[in-house]
Design a protein that fits this description.
With about 120 residues, this protein is α+β, with helices and mostly antiparallel strands. The protein has a single domain (about 5-115), classed as Nuclear Transport Factor 2, Chain: A (Roll). It is built from three helices and six strands. The protein has helices at about 5-15, 20-25, 45-55, and strands at about 30-35, 45, 60-70, 75-85, 90-105, 105-115. The chain has a six-stranded mixed beta sheet with strand order 2-1-6-5-4-3, with helices on one face. The longest helix is centred in the N-terminal third of the chain and has 15 residues, at about 5-15. The relative contact order is 0.23.
């Protein structure tokens, strides 16, 4: 894959993750993909990812705004962005995030997320 293809996969992720259909976002991941997110054990495989996006994710709805996408090595990308939305408990949230992706054959094989929070 070239850099443009990697960026296209990453951008497609953000177009899909804000949709109301969890299976659509999971289809962007490889069968054995790994997702690391603060507060959760690493999620491995599509079944674990579907469980997260369908039931465990605290976000009810919202929008991801991408501030920058940087493609480094041929299969890796970093994203800086802001999320604004509503959580399942009804509260509103706006926060910065950084995501790191590894992409192979048009599928995400690894993703790690970090949030802008005043925890340290």
């Amino acid at each position: 894959m070239n850099r443009q293809q990697v960026e296209a996969v990453v951008r497609r992720y953000y177009e899909t993750v804000d949709s109301p259909t969890p299976a659509d976002v999971v289809d962007l991941f490889a069968n054995d993909a790994v997702y690391r997110r603060p507060g959760y054990e690493p999620m491995v495989g599509r079944e674990a990812l579907l469980g997260f996006y369908d039931r465990r994710r605290v976000i009810a709805e919202g929008t991801h705004e991408l501030l920058g996408v940087l493609v480094g090595a041929p299969d890796r990308a970093a994203v800086e962005g802001r999320f604004s939305g509503r959580l399942r408990d009804g509260s509103s949230v706006t926060l910065g995030f950084a995501d790191f992706f590894t992409v192979k054959e048009d599928l995400i094989i690894e993703r790690s997320t970090y949030f802008e929070t005043p925890t340290v």
